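testing teh design pipeline on a random one, pls ignore if ur not involved
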């Protein structure tokens, strides 16, 4: 179960709130404002839907289905108040004899009660859970508003309760007020057109001008801004065939962009102050010397101002949009802010989700005049006839298209079964075949459509693109989600911070841009993000053919960017944690992430090999994936080209790399042994012996134990990815349904370990990191670690730079903690909990809060301070590897001061490399570890 601090499952990412049992603040791959599931992992906004301060109110006391139904109804009422709905998917049935059901109670374990859709539960019982969980106050079919969702989850963490009722009890003398958690708003954005996005991205890259020598943000010298005229009638690029031809961009002899004037050091220092730069524009000087005060209007208008009215915008040639926003009234920005939060497209006035809803909100005195003013400022476009015919037809609803077909006498055979795309195609064919009828055919048809649609508007493409560029620049230090969610998530953060519902650590932020030394570099970065977004949309639609085409475009852009020696050299002067904010790194990451898709390319069977070889050649932009690159390329040669010798040499080259990480070397060694022991198509003895020479010496294997569990799940179609359900009969005859981890916890209870948590190390890691709060969020001149006020961790978090920059401070703190006893460490935890509780950070406040300090104390007593500090030190040294993969369970016996870290493995489940590495580390630190193998019995088709 190689999961980064979560209970493994494959739930849909459409869930908004995490469950009370699995959430982590430790991985920077996702934003918590973004929609997340109970098994998702992120370090921002880890919200709990429960009413107390800890996620584990889940004791291992089970409720019968009758009791559970009442409980679910109560929970449902709470969820109704919170305006959150979690519908259950279809579950896989379990065959249980009716007589047994009548005679004995069937009880649900905590994890199954909280997330029934993750498990294969009985068919006859799923309706009870589904109907209970779907009950809502008011109308059953009502949908909660985004605003109510946003403010609904104000509830504290639950107090952690061990899975067992401990014999020894401690007085919980430390209490604190229940804190707040806030639920993110869910924002659905549909897919953009494949062709138009790619063509626009290519067009942007082609139109990038040679940067001026004064484009460097850290050395600003710009002219007075000029208002550039932007046409409100922005025609949409005509669609082309879905099969786009990929044209290789030849590297032009452009003037090389100015190199960053950086010293050769691990982490860059601030290369100058914007305030000390020479200025010729009084407008810029005014913004720099006098901080722009964002006030008036509503949250949308203030948010738009906050991302646009910035001095850096001049450096990227966005002064035109700055002038437009500055001249716009608050009423205009109230409407415009809501429009830009929507999917980019035409919006009808009379549609259910159209302009009428904004008018009914009474956001302004004269709605029509505000729209007219926005059109005058060229922020919106109201000329629907300016767009292409197929786009215009797509605005119409299916019944309207059918009526229009009758008007133009289009053949209505099988019209009832016609799809909307087919009807649109019929009109396009009509225009092609009938050149004139009552004048120009296209214009006549457009006029008819315009009369049907009525008033309709769309955001000006140029203005919207400029604002999104401003948003990317403002949010790139902390946003790491999908592009379609960028505006909504950044707005949500801004809104919560304004209302004091969300707080971030206090640190010294430097408003500099290390990477974007020119307008060209920033536009390249934005183009790379747009292409990555298009690939994601195509893969969501399972359109692999067009996804491969876009990936080919990215590959060509990647090679073209690498040819710019000046750009590459400037990026190599800065560390990896800043290097990732560049077009080259975006291309490298996206190409490797989708290497499986590239292997499916039929038009170029060598594409995957070419991409992997190029990535390995320039591995400085894929530092964290070096071992994976070697392994994937070796697989290609082994399976596709049947060249085992070449594959073995690739693995060998990786093992010889001095910069290979410990985990990477372990992964490569495992494959090296596999190649050396191959029985078919054997390697020559010289190569075989060389591979085996890099194989690790026999290491102490972690101890194991095996327990039995009765599987009651029945595998059938649609049940893939759901967790198995195990049953256990108690002395009184009740049947308990539980997960594999809960089954293991119950086993250790019988062994005398009365306290246990299935948290994958979250509590003990949060305890350690909280002791280092001031070191994590401290200032270390001249290093650039904080750029945005919305960062919840320094830019170098999870990298080796983190430890190197703070090495002395970390060693001093560990030395101090070693001299303390358990109570003194708990005093530090209490102090920092009181001061920083619920601050968005690397701490998981669902576990680490003052209510749980007694539990922390008992755990620390059993683990031991030496082991506790060794675990934390390893995390700080290499967080990218060791922030994940800790054992599933920690169980401890307070009476005997014993503690065991347990990795649970169900049937046919194996240890991952990361999990194995963690177990060895824990053994090295002197901790007790164990791998608990669960052997399943019963069930059906359990192979």
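output:
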């Amino acid at each position: 179960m190689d999961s980064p601090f979560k209970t493994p499952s494959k739930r849909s990412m459409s869930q908004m709130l995490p469950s009370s049992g699995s959430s982590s603040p430790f991985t920077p791959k996702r934003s918590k404002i973004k929609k997340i599931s109970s098994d998702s992992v992120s370090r921002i906004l880890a919200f709990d839907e429960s009413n107390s301060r800890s996620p584990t109110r889940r004791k291992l006391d089970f409720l019968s289905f009758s009791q559970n139904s009442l409980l679910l109804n109560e929970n449902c009422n709470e969820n109704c108040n919170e305006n959150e709905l979690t519908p259950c998917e279809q579950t896989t049935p379990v065959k249980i004899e009716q007589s047994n059901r009548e005679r004995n109670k069937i009880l649900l374990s905590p994890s199954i009660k909280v997330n029934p859709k993750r498990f294969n539960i009985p068919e006859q019982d799923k309706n009870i859970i589904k109907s209970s969980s779907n009950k809502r106050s008011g109308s059953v079919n009502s949908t909660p508003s985004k605003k109510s969702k946003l403010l609904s989850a104000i509830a504290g963490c639950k107090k952690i309760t061990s899975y067992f009722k401990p014999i020894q009890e401690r007085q919980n003398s430390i209490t604190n007020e229940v804190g707040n958690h806030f639920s993110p708003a869910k924002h659905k954005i549909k897919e953009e057109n494949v062709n138009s996005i790619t063509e626009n991205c290519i067009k942007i890259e082609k139109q990038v001008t040679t940067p001026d020598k004064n484009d460097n943000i850290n050395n600003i010298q710009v002219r007075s801004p000029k208002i550039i005229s932007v046409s409100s009638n922005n025609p949409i690029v005509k669609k082309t065939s879905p099969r786009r031809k990929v044209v290789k961009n030849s590297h032009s002899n452009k003037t090389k962009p100015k190199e960053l004037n950086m010293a050769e050091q691990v982490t860059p220092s601030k290369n100058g102050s914007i305030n000390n730069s020479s200025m010729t524009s009084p407008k810029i000087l005014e913004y720099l010397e006098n901080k722009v005060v964002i006030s008036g209007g509503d949250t949308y208008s203030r948010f738009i101002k906050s991302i646009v009215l910035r001095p850096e915008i001049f450096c990227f040639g966005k002064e035109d949009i700055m002038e437009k926003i500055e001249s716009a009234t608050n009423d205009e920005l109230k409407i415009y802010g809501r429009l830009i939060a929507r999917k980019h497209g035409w919006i009808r006035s009379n549609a259910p989700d159209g302009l009428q809803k904004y008018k009914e909100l009474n956001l302004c005195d004269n709605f029509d005049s505000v729209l007219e003013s926005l059109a005058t400022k060229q922020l919106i476009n109201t000329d629907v006839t300016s767009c292409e015919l197929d786009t215009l037809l797509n605005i119409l609803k299916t019944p309207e298209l059918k009526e229009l077909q009758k008007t133009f006498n289009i053949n209505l055979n099988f019209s009832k079964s016609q799809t909307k795309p087919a009807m649109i195609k019929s009109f396009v064919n009509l225009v092609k075949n009938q050149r004139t009828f009552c004048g120009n055919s296209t214009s006549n048809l457009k006029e008819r459509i315009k009369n049907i649609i009525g008033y309709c508007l769309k955001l000006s493409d140029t203005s919207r693109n400029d604002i999104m560029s401003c948003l990317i620049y403002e949010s790139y230090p902390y946003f790491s989600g999908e592009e379609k969610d960028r505006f909504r998530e950044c707005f949500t953060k801004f809104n919560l911070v304004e209302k004091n519902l969300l707080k971030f650590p206090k640190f010294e932020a430097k408003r500099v841009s290390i990477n974007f030394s020119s307008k060209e570099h920033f536009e390249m970065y934005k183009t790379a993000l747009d292409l990555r977004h298009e690939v994601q949309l195509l893969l969501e639609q399972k359109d692999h053919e067009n996804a491969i085409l876009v990936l080919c475009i990215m590959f060509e852009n990647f090679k073209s960017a690498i040819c710019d020696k000046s750009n590459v050299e400037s990026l190599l002067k800065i560390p990896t944690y800043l290097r990732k904010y560049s077009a080259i790194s975006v291309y490298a990451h996206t190409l490797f992430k989708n290497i499986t898709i590239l292997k499916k390319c039929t038009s170029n069977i060598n594409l995957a090999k070419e991409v992997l070889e190029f990535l390995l050649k320039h591995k400085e932009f894929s530092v964290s994936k070096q071992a994976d690159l070697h392994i994937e390329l070796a697989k290609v040669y082994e399976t596709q080209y049947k060249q085992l010798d070449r594959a073995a040499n690739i693995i060998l080259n990786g093992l010889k790399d001095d910069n290979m990480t410990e985990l990477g070397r372990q992964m490569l060694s495992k494959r090296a042994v596999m190649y050396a022991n191959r029985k078919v198509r054997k390697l020559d003895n010289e190569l075989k012996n060389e591979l085996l020479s890099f194989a690790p010496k026999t290491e102490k294997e972690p101890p194991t134990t095996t327990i039995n569990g009765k599987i009651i799940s029945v595998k059938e179609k649609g049940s893939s990815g759901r967790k198995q359900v195990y049953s256990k009969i108690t002395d009184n005859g009740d049947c308990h349904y539980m997960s594999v981890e809960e089954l293991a916890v119950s086993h250790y209870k019988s062994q005398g370990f009365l306290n246990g948590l299935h948290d994958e190390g979250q509590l003990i890691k949060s305890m350690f990191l909280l002791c280092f709060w001031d070191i994590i969020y401290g200032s270390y001149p001249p290093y650039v670690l904080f750029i945005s006020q919305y960062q919840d961790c320094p830019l170098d978090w999870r990298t080796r730079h983190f430890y190197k920059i703070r090495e002395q401070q970390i060693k001093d703190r560990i030395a101090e903690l070693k001299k303390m006893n358990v109570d003194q460490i708990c005093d530090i935890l209490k102090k920092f909990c009181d001061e920083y509780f619920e601050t968005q950070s690397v701490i998981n406040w669902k576990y680490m809060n003052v209510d749980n300090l007694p539990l922390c104390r008992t755990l620390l007593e059993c683990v031991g301070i030496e082991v506790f500090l060794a675990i934390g030190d390893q995390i700080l040294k290499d967080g990218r590897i060791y922030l994940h993969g800790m054992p599933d369970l920690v169980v401890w016996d307070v009476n005997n001061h014993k503690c065991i870290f347990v990795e649970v493995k169900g049937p046919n489940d194996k240890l991952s490399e990361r999990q194995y590495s963690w177990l060895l580390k824990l053994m090295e630190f002197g901790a007790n570890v164990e791998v608990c193998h669960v052997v399943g019995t019963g069930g059906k088709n359990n192979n």
